[in-house]
Amino acid sequence: MSNTIKLQVRGMSCGHCKAAVEKAVKKLSGVQTVEATPAENQVVVTHDGSTDLKTVKEAITDEGYTVVD
């Protein structure tokens, strides 16, 4: 069973931003897919249930982007 996390992320503006966020989140245990969309300031993460929201947010903020709560 897959779970989905949708986040609003500020600061993504280009393909490099997209790649940086996707790479950081894909490294997390349990993550199946990551789709960052800079034009919509959105990141969608599909995971197996073992990934928690806090860890995903930390991975994104560690790359220099802001997760909007």
From TrEMBL:
Xref: Pfam families: HMA
Top-level taxon in the UniProt lineage: Bacteria
GO molecular function, one term: copper ion binding
Positions of the HMA domain: 3-68
GO annotation terms (biological process): copper ion transport
InterPro entries attached to this UniProt entry: Cu-bd, HMA_dom, HMA_dom_sf
PROSITE patterns: HMA_2
Protein name per its UniProtKB record: Heavy metal transport/detoxification protein
